[in-house]
Amino acid sequence: MTNGWNDIKNADVVLVMGGNAAEAHTCGFKWVTEAKSGNGAKLIVVDPRFTRTAAVSDLYAPLRPGSDIAFLGGIIHYLLSNEKIFKDYVLAYTNAAFIVKEGFGFEDGLFSGYNAEKRDYDRSSWDYEYDEAGQAKLDPTLENPRCVFNLLKVHYSRYTAEMVEKTCGTPKDLFLKVCELIATTATGAKTLTSLYALGWTQHSKGSQNIRNIAIIQLLLGNMGVPGGGINALRGHSNVQGITDFGLFSNSVPGYLAMPNSKETTLEEYLKTRAFKPIRPDQMSFLQNYRKFFVSFLKAMYGKNATAENQFGFDWLPKVDVNLDTLRQFELMFQGKMNGFICQGFNPLMSVPNRKKLIAGLSKLKYLVVMDPLHTETAHFFENHGEMNDADPAKIATEVFLLPTNCFAEEEGTFTNSGRVIQWHWKAAEPPGQARTDIQIMADLFLRLKALYAKEGGKFPDPIMNVDWSYRNPAKPTADELLREINGRALADLPDPADATKPPIKKAGELMDIFAQLKDDGTTSCANWIYSGCYTEKGNMTARRDPSDPSGKGIHPNWGYAWPANRRILYNRASADPSGKAWNAKKKVIEWNGSRWAGIDVPDFGPLIDPTQKATGPFIMNPEGVGRLFTRGMMREGPFPEHYEPFESPVANPFHTKVQSNPVARVFKGDLEVFGKSEDFPYVATTYRLVEHFHYWTKHAKMNAVLQPELFVEIGEQLAKDKGIASGDMVEVSSNRGRIKAKAVVTKRIRPLVCDGKPVHIVGIPIHWGFIGATKKGFGANQLTPYVGDANTETPEYKAFLVNIKRIGPAA
Amino acid sequence: MTINRREFFRLGGTAVAGTTASALGFGSLEAVAAEVRPYKLARTTETRNTCPYCSVSCGVIIHTTGDGSKNTKAEIVHVEGDPDHPVNRGSLCPKGAALLDFIRSETRVKQPMHRAAGEAGFKPVSWDFVMERVARLMKDDRDANFKQASDDGKTLNHWPTTGFLAGCATTNETGWLTYKAVRSLGIIALDNQARI
């Protein structure tokens, strides 16, 4: 979330699309209710199903699963063609006026530079024109036909309300009502907030859904203001934190990158990450990259990281191919993986194409599962009939199930969706012999280290040199780990303003903030964006002062929000170029003549005088402004384009030559098992219920009582066509598998008419498995296709093709 | 006797029982009060925690028996929303409201388990057995498949044949220590639940 949960109450219009907050983020949704009752806000819900969020909306519009880009593109077209944009903001705070270089183009569904054989683009033409000094060229009059604003207009000119109706099945009149309501926030007086979840991300082009809302919010001037922003309602309690800590193949904590093999030295690695400003007056915060990265290496290797050995740069593994979950299981399926460790993750249920997963896990030499619960992944080798068709006698995988504590039995921090890091306290001991994940990881590491010390082996250097100087190396505490994360001075740090003054930090002291980090090895910090969370004043994440002096939902002394305890990101944009709030009601920070000040921590140089320097508010971008055109940062192109899901009932209405995402990765074998609409005529989408959380609450008796049994949801018309009554048993099949479930016939799902043809939708909740307190049930991943978003590799769970038939009366 | 506010309300709720009691000859308020089970949370220890399910991260209060002294064993008997928490303000959804049933779930793992090749099920084993065996399997695989350099001589220093999937309901501190351990081993097949 760019803003936070409490901030939703400041919104005037709330758009929930790509999520169902009332059921999946119930207690956060109360702030939508608060916006409606306290602020007179209007709630718009766009969803294939009439969800419980839709039930309390002011305006509900249905759309076909997988057609979001067309819908959002239609909104952009409406805003541009009706001049419903916040022009001063767009001109000053976006790249609308930037001139795009010759050579960039878009034709027949493809941007310039496409290579069909590689299924990839040469993105070099997707960039600005630069002057001799390397600065981007602008046309503030917006007359140049190659400026971003005009290219944007041309690109979206095809996204008319008629095309939206044809593609999404949303009636044109209803769609226009959505546009009109959204457009009421274009003046700076009102704000729109966007709340989304997996409904936008679990698509083969999910990232471009988010790009579209970014464009909308920039055009409306809704970034950086209370009640605005783009708010990803994230999944698990600490999915934000684990993302921040970079537990990805190619990441380093704090959104830094793992080096690849071409980057043979630290200098080589840092060269491409200088992020020099490309506008005069601009500050580019990531110019501090070297400080953050060297401090990370010091946290990894401690005193063994020296300037002479490039702070241990060579010890870090080099990543040339991103080994994301889908690729890992593909390699496993090919027999190229030997070992696999799952720490509190149940991939047998959550990764697509169950059949492929069982085959992959069966080829492993060893599988280690660390979990508080008996997960299906740990028990993958068991035969549960059609629900898990495995033959244990033929599976040679050695499996270990290690009991871990649950949340109540440990202390430490979770980071919520609004980036607030919150400490929690331990209430009891874990049951039986269960241990904490920390203890297990430490034990494993120390045993391996001892084996290498005794026996030698391949390249033991990083194992021997990693810093493990915890008070009790076998049981590091959450408290000392959080201090290591925050970072500390390793030598006295002189005052940068005046070296004759006492040092700003003495050796050993905890950092106050990442701005104090050094690139010469005199500071250590595991995750720069968390720096400030545990200072000499104490554990900031354990703060429990709920006061909110401004009344705007900031709560500055509750926990600690990264970065720098800032609650609203990009808040410099809440003020106009001269430093005055665009709207007194939506004031966050202002220039008071000598510094930036207000109700939140400024997301800007606190002393940059806006009357002297035209520094842009988006200081993480070298442009200093928000991007309507993303240069080469997205794999599909610098503007979002509608592509159909890999399994779709219709031909792409926008262009005949390119049906689906032209750069999405499809493995051999997976392409062959995509279904055709002749055989699988209905669109399936997966979803969650308010009573369950993924494959977890099925272990809890109360939740099992509330929702005991798998069902699939279909509309009345489809039920009639197929002779299905509510409660009948049905079989739902895709080209990869079949599931059996009870049918629930509702008015909540209705057929949509796309290009003159009715499209029926089958809703499949995801919460059942073969272990737990509920009845056993099939999983949606027995049906879903093995393809992910081209940028993130998040699998396409929200739109695929199935067939459905009645197999008998209620069982 | 002293009657606190909650017990007073409970007394009100037992008016029918009270009438019956007086019919049996116990007329005094003390007799009624003696029949009422004292409010069980009045003497529990409260611990502030965070709901582990979704990323609203609601504040919860966990009630345990005992006062934490040496001769008592804390048992979790109740979980409720934390009214001081600025986001959930005491409320919980049907998932959070049933957290006690997750904590006490019958399908929790209580001891290390091992399944040998071809076996139909798990057998309980000791921590030492598990950790020693896993460390051995990992070291053997690492030593056999660790790549120090590419064919054209570029440094790789990675171990591609063992994967690690991290969860998203573990703490940041767990995440960092895990990162440190797996990267020091050279693991590059690293991913987490956020992907899905």
UniProtKB/TrEMBL annotation, chain A:
<dbReference type="InterPro" id="IPR009010">
    <property type="entry name" value="Asp_de-COase-like_dom_sf"/>
</dbReference>
<keyword id="KW-0411">Iron-sulfur</keyword>
<dbReference type="InterPro" id="IPR006443">
    <property type="entry name" value="Formate-DH-alph_fdnG"/>
</dbReference>
<keyword id="KW-0560">Oxidoreductase</keyword>
<comment type="similarity">
    <text>Belongs to the prokaryotic molybdopterin-containing oxidoreductase family.</text>
</comment>
<keyword id="KW-0408">Iron</keyword>
<protein>
    <submittedName>
        <fullName>Formate dehydrogenase</fullName>
    </submittedName>
</protein>
<dbReference type="GO" id="GO:0047111">
    <property type="term" value="F:formate dehydrogenase (cytochrome-c-553) activity"/>
</dbReference>
<dbReference type="Pfam" id="PF00384">
    <property type="entry name" value="Molybdopterin"/>
</dbReference>
<keyword id="KW-0712">Selenocysteine</keyword>
<keyword id="KW-0479">Metal-binding</keyword>
<dbReference type="GO" id="GO:0009055">
    <property type="term" value="F:electron transfer activity"/>
</dbReference>
<keyword id="KW-0004">4Fe-4S</keyword>
<dbReference type="GO" id="GO:0043546">
    <property type="term" value="F:molybdopterin cofactor binding"/>
</dbReference>
<keyword id="KW-0732">Signal</keyword>
<feature type="domain" description="Molybdopterin oxidoreductase">
    <location>
        <begin position="2"/>
        <end position="380"/>
    </location>
</feature>
<dbReference type="InterPro" id="IPR006657">
    <property type="entry name" value="MoPterin_dinucl-bd_dom"/>
</dbReference>
<dbReference type="GO" id="GO:0008863">
    <property type="term" value="F:formate dehydrogenase (NAD+) activity"/>
</dbReference>
<dbReference type="InterPro" id="IPR006656">
    <property type="entry name" value="Mopterin_OxRdtase"/>
</dbReference>
<dbReference type="Pfam" id="PF01568">
    <property type="entry name" value="Molydop_binding"/>
</dbReference>
<feature type="domain" description="Molybdopterin oxidoreductase">
    <location>
        <begin position="401"/>
        <end position="444"/>
    </location>
</feature>
<feature type="domain" description="Molybdopterin dinucleotide-binding">
    <location>
        <begin position="683"/>
        <end position="800"/>
    </location>
</feature>
Automatic annotation (TrEMBL), chain B:
<keyword id="KW-0408">Iron</keyword>
<dbReference type="Pfam" id="PF04879">
    <property type="entry name" value="Molybdop_Fe4S4"/>
</dbReference>
<keyword id="KW-0560">Oxidoreductase</keyword>
<dbReference type="InterPro" id="IPR006963">
    <property type="entry name" value="Mopterin_OxRdtase_4Fe-4S_dom"/>
</dbReference>
<dbReference type="GO" id="GO:0009055">
    <property type="term" value="F:electron transfer activity"/>
</dbReference>
<keyword id="KW-0411">Iron-sulfur</keyword>
<keyword id="KW-0479">Metal-binding</keyword>
<dbReference type="GO" id="GO:0030313">
    <property type="term" value="C:cell envelope"/>
</dbReference>
<dbReference type="GO" id="GO:0009061">
    <property type="term" value="P:anaerobic respiration"/>
</dbReference>
<comment type="similarity">
    <text>Belongs to the prokaryotic molybdopterin-containing oxidoreductase family.</text>
</comment>
<dbReference type="GO" id="GO:0016491">
    <property type="term" value="F:oxidoreductase activity"/>
</dbReference>
<dbReference type="GO" id="GO:0030151">
    <property type="term" value="F:molybdenum ion binding"/>
</dbReference>
<feature type="domain" description="4Fe-4S Mo/W bis-MGD-type">
    <location>
        <begin position="44"/>
        <end position="107"/>
    </location>
</feature>
<dbReference type="GO" id="GO:0051539">
    <property type="term" value="F:4 iron, 4 sulfur cluster binding"/>
</dbReference>
<dbReference type="InterPro" id="IPR027467">
    <property type="entry name" value="MopterinOxRdtase_cofactor_BS"/>
</dbReference>
<protein>
    <submittedName>
        <fullName>Sulfate ABC transporter substrate-binding protein</fullName>
    </submittedName>
</protein>
<keyword id="KW-0004">4Fe-4S</keyword>
<dbReference type="InterPro" id="IPR006311">
    <property type="entry name" value="TAT_signal"/>
</dbReference>
